[in-house]
Design goal:
The complex is a heterotrimer of chains A (549), B (137) and C (285).
Chain A lengths: L4 H17 L26 H6 L23 E2 L8 H13 L4 E5 L2 H4 L23 H7 L9 E5 L4 H14 L8 E4 L4 H7 L6 H18 L3 E2 L1 E4 L1 H5 L4 H21 L4 H4 L3 E7 L3 H21 L6 H4 L3 E5 L11 H15 L4 E3 L12 H16 L14 H23 L3 H6 L2 H18 L28 H15 L2 H16 L5 H9 L4 H12 L7
Parallel strand pairs in A: 1-9, 2-3, 3-4, 4-5, 6-7, 7-8, 8-9
Chain B lengths: L7 E5 L8 H12 L3 E4 L6 H11 L3 E6 L4 H14 L7 E5 L3 H9 L2 E5 L5 H13 L5
Parallel strand pairs in B: 1-2, 1-3, 3-4, 4-5
Helix pairs in contact in B: 2-3
Chain C lengths: L1 H8 L4 H7 L3 H6 L1 E7 L5 H14 L4 E7 L8 E3 L14 E7 L7 H14 L4 E7 L3 H7 L4 E6 L6 H6 L2 H4 L2 E4 L7 H13 L7 E4 L8 H18 L1 H33 L7 H11 L1
Parallel strand pairs in C: 1-5, 1-6, 2-4, 2-5, 6-7, 7-8
The chains are: A alpha/beta (549), B alpha/beta (137), C alpha/beta (285).
């Protein structure tokens, strides 16, 4: 049977171009018997419905993946989120990871840093260095990346409301190392909308927060063009208890809000849209999760094309990072968590993720130990090198169940996005609590099913055993708060305080107007103004967002 | 009459941790078990929680923390309640709390600690028992 | 103060002693402000803004926030504090959350007592905040000297509010979220409706509660209206109405348990007119 002309067209264009630039990992992918594994399974004669809904990898609407060769070309990035205690201790961990061959870092900040409080703020009590590293000023950032070449390493930073400040610090450290801003690579999460509905590290109300985000888009397009300016995150929405459909809908609705805000601010769509990245959750319902990733990719491509008129393929592609679902980890029989994480990671890979973090088995008790982190990383490596799922593209495509579920998730998510639009948009739906209520209700219903035993969680409500619940735990040094405060005092005593006061005053004036705030923030951090000082200036001008519960 | 007061509890999250799925679930489950639940939301200082507990005259206070700050924050709420003149309000807590911290927290005055996977009926019974110890309103 | 309100709410005997010892002068001087409106209009945020404004002049403030009880379990989630937590440690902001507890009336009595306890403790303004649905919520609004109805554009409930008769009880209509699309239209619609057949049309105020905009102007209008009502005797008339309503509530509250046990005790036949049976019981009591 002759090849379908569309398949030939794809092979001669997208595929050939890609193979030309990046050869595949192996000359030939084979099974145990030495037979060749095909690159891509397709129907013998693709019909119009196939071409419209699935098409080919690296081709609109990207249902089958964003690259023409997917993992045959390059495996997903195995990026493990890490950071705790002081900048010096985290620096040691990062350098260790880099020595082991990691090419990308992922920084976890502590909660005071994420909410723009210095370590000596009364609100920081008990939280300094707990869930990530404490950063008060450029001095901490210098320590964090000491002897790490920012020109070579790409760094992902989980930072949202004060993203502008941490980004400025990162670029400043680069400059001190002699790395020009245009060579700085990495990602900031910078997704404030989901903080209001799911994660809670907001500072300012939505309007000024969106202004800061747009300021970052613009500043980065001119100064750090290789930097991903946002990671639009469904992960935390799902963790808060949403369904898979809600995760897709609320995340893409947030994405549309950022795009619209940037367009309204006069930014060029095809310049900033290529720097938008996404971040999803991989939960245990394997088939639903695979369908979810595929549906999200197709829906985003269609939204970008139809609603916003994006033309550049890079603007249409939903590229995403995935983390396995923290909320599914159990405190009971923790070894079972390795199995859960394996299923979830498999879902992410079958769904075509660009990078992946696998959780560690002990995280329902505390931060993971080095040993359990290693097992989590090994899980990814087994999937990549032993399971064979990376050797053929989008292998579940064409399954009646997967395809109908992909269609269903896309349809239902779009309906929910439309409903949000009809109700006045995302910001209004957050202020009214509509989105929060949807998530809350889904979470409550799910938990009640577990409580009633209708949904079985192995080791928790069935198959329980008596066990000695004492896994080895990682403890954060309780002295970190004291040493961090001492270091902060030192910084304040050794900088030009008059200059800091002047720069903060200039920032305040600029915030009252409508200028891009990034240059002002950049000037402040270079003179060692602290994160708390900068955020307090902005709090004064912008006000603070209040939880609506 | 007089027993209704014993069904009045406060649920709050001290510290900066924004993961409120657990706290909201407990609040909803307590409501469905007939409690009146004053919910104070996320990111509260121990003093704010204590002041609210006194003004609202609740029979028990429930706290949740997932960030590992429980050893500082839970005892701080107990202390704040004492300072606010309400040492008799029992404090219960839950979250990602290692087994080995539980003894120390109980010594610091927290009457019950719930870890992930505790059945909701156990939690509701514990709140009921904590409230019953209060003098009748 | 919290304990005192609990005692009243739970009908404890000692409550009477407390209620008898309250400072009547302070009670009559205090201004009782009712704030009602549909969910999502921004009542709590507006209340929070009003508190901040009043605190600048160092006034002591009381808030009674009412949320509905679940009709099934009798429980309730009282979440109004969340948006007012910035005042949590301010000794001069006294807040009490109350559940409707599914009573017919009765709520008016306990909320009224709470307001008087707060006034007697020096609160010069007491805000009663409640969702504007259901009869018991409407009843407690009658306790207020001045009532605000808070609406916001795009909720689609402006018409519902008119149906529910809320427009009639309101002294001032507040269009919150005035920076959102549709706010001006909503304000114009409201003005048109209230002007119809009324010599003294209800005032319409615009606010953006999240940013504190329009709150100072709103408070000025409240002040002006309150003074006018004090001079004209309107305020006294309303307090009289509220007082009588409260007495009636207490009558029902006190009679209810006795009557209930009387009815159960009698094991009345299923047949026959219930109204007549009721009359007979009351006559014998």
């Amino acid at each position: 049977m002759p090849k379908h002309p569309k398949l030939t067209e794809w092979e001669e264009n997208e595929l050939a171009k890609s193979l030309n630039r990046f050869p595949e990992r192996k000359e030939k992918f084979t099974n145990h018997g030495g037979e060749e594994i095909p690159r891509l399974g397709t129907p013998e004669s693709p019909d119009d419905a196939y071409l419209e809904k699935l098409s080919f990898p690296g081709k609109y609407p990207y249902t089958r993946g964003v690259q023409p060769t997917m993992y045959r070309g390059r495996l997903w990035t195995m990026r493990q989120y890490a950071g705790f205690s002081s900048a010096a201790e985290s620096n040691k961990r990062y350098r260790f990871l880099l020595e082991q061959g990691t090419s990308g870092l992922s920084v976890a900040f502590d909660l005071p840093t994420q909410i723009g409080y210095d370590s000596d703020d009364p609100m920081s009590l008990g939280e300094v260095g707990k869930v990530g590293v404490a950063i008060d000023s450029l001095a901490d950032m210098e320590t964090l990346f000491d002897q790490i070449p920012l020109g070579k390493v790409s760094t992902s930073m989980t930072i949202n409301s004060p993203a502008a400040v941490l980004l400025a610090m990162y670029v400043a450290v680069g400059e001190k190392q002699g790395v020009a801003p245009e060579n700085i690579k990495g990602t900031i999460q910078n997704d404030v909308l989901k903080e209001y509905v799911a994660r809670g590290t907001y500072i300012f109300p939505p309007k000024p927060s969106l202004r800061l985000i747009t300021n970052i888009f613009q500043w980065c397009s001119q100064n750090t063009p290789a930097f991903n300016t946002i990671s639009i995150s469904g992960y935390h929405i799902r963790e808060a208890g949403s369904t898979a459909v809600q995760e897709v809908a609320f995340t893409l609705a947030n994405g549309c809000t950022y795009v619209q805000t940037a367009i309204d601010a006069g930014l060029e769509l095809d310049i900033f849209a290529r720097r938008l990245a996404f971040f999803f959750n991989a939960s245990s319902d394997l088939l639903e999760e695979v369908a979810k990733f595929r549906a999200a990719r197709r829906l985003w491509a269609r939204l970008m094309k139809d609603r916003f008129g994006a033309r550049d393929p890079a603007s249409l592609m939903l590229r995403f990072h995935t983390q396995t679902a923290g909320n599914t980890l159990t405190a009971q029989q923790i070894d079972n968590n390795i199995v859960r994480v394996t299923i979830q990671a498999l879902a992410a890979v079958l769904g075509g993720t660009q990078s992946l973090h696998t959780n560690s088995k002990d995280e329902a008790h505390s931060l993971p130990t080095e040993e359990s982190v290693r097992t989590a990383l090994r899980t990814q490596q087994v999937l990549a090198h032993e399971s064979g799922v990376a050797d053929t593209i989008d292998p579940l495509a064409g399954s009646y169940y997967i395809e109908s579920l992909t269609d269903k998730i896309e349809r239902e998510a779009l309906a929910l996005i439309d409903k949000i639009d009809e109700s006045g948009g995302v910001v209004k739906c957050i202020e009214d609590g509509f989105i929060q209520r949807q998530i809350e209700n889904a979470a409550y219903q799910y938990q009640m099913e577990i409580e009633r035993g209708e949904r079985i969680i192995v080791g928790v409500n069935k198959f329980q055993i008596q066990e000695d619940k004492k896994p080895p735990l990682l403890r954060v040094n309780p002295e970190v708060e004291k040493t961090q405060v001492a270091k902060l005092d030192g910084v304040k005593n050794n900088r030009n305080n008059q200059q800091v006061t002047n720069l903060l005053a200039r920032l305040e004036t600029a915030a009252q107007g409508s200028e891009n705030l990034m240059p002002y923030i950049y000037d402040c951090v270079k003179e060692y103004a602290t994160l708390g000082e900068i955020c307090n200036v902005l709090r004064k001008v912008f006000g603070e967002y209040k939880d609506r519960g | 009459m007089g027993t209704a007061q014993r069904n009045r509890v406060l649920i709050g999250k001290p510290g900066l941790d924004g993961h409120d799925r657990g706290a909201k679930f407990i609040a909803q489950a307590l409501r469905d078990a007939g409690f009146e639940v004053v919910y104070t939301g996320i990111r509260r200082s121990p003093e704010e929680i204590a002041a609210a507990a006194v003004q609202e005259d609740v029979a028990a206070v429930g706290l949740s923390s997932l960030s590992g700050a429980h050893m500082r924050l839970f005892p701080a709420v107990v202390e704040a309640l004492k300072k606010a003149g309400a040492p008799d309000i029992p404090v219960l807590g839950g979250g990602v709390i290692p087994e080995e911290d539980i003894v120390a927290l109980k010594e610091a005055g927290i009457v019950e600690i719930f870890t992930p996977g505790t059945p909701i009926d156990t939690i509701i019974s514990a709140y009921r028992a904590a409230c019953e110890k209060q003098p009748p309103g | 103060m919290g304990r005192a309100i609990s005692l009243v709410e739970n009908g404890a005997e000692s409550a009477e002693i407390i209620l008898a010892s309250l400072d009547e002068d302070l009670i009559s001087q205090a201004t009782i402000l009712g704030i009602t409106g549909p969910p999502g209009a921004g009542k709590s945020t507006l209340t929070n803004g009003i508190i901040s404004q009043l605190r600048q002049s160092r006034k002591r403030i009381g808030i009674v926030a009412v949320d509905p009880s679940s009709p099934i379990s009798g429980g309730a989630i009282l979440g109004d504090r969340i948006r007012m937590m910035q005042h949590a440690t301010d000794q001069d902001v006294v807040m009490r959350s109350m559940a409707t507890r599914g009573r017919l009336g009765g709520l008016c009595a306990t909320a009224g007592a709470a307001v008087r306890i707060m006034a007697s403790c020096g609160c010069s303004t007491i805000i009663i905040e409640t969702v504007g649905v259901g009869q018991s919520e409407m009843d407690i609004i009658s306790l207020a000297d001045i009532t605000l109805l808070v609406l916001a554009p795009g909720l689609g409930d402006d018409i519902q509010a008119m149906k529910a008769g809320l427009l009639e009880v309101a002294d001032i209509l507040v269009v919150n979220k005035a920076d959102c699309r549709g706010a001006d239209t909503l304000a114009m619609d409201l003005e048109a409706v209230t002007r119809k057949g009324s010599a003294e049309p209800t005032q319409v105020c615009m606010t953006v509660a999240t940013e504190g905009k329009g709150i100072a102007e709103l408070l000025e209008r409240i002040d002006t209206l309150d003074s006018a009502h004090r001079d004209s005797g309107e305020r006294q008339k309303r307090r009289r109405g509220a007082h009588d309503q409260e007495v009636l509530d207490w009558c029902l509250e006190i009679l209810r348990p006795t009557l209930k046990s009387e009815i159960t005790k009698r094991k009345l036949p299923l047949l026959g007119d219930p109204r007549r049976k009721a009359k007979e019981i009351l006559q014998e009591q």
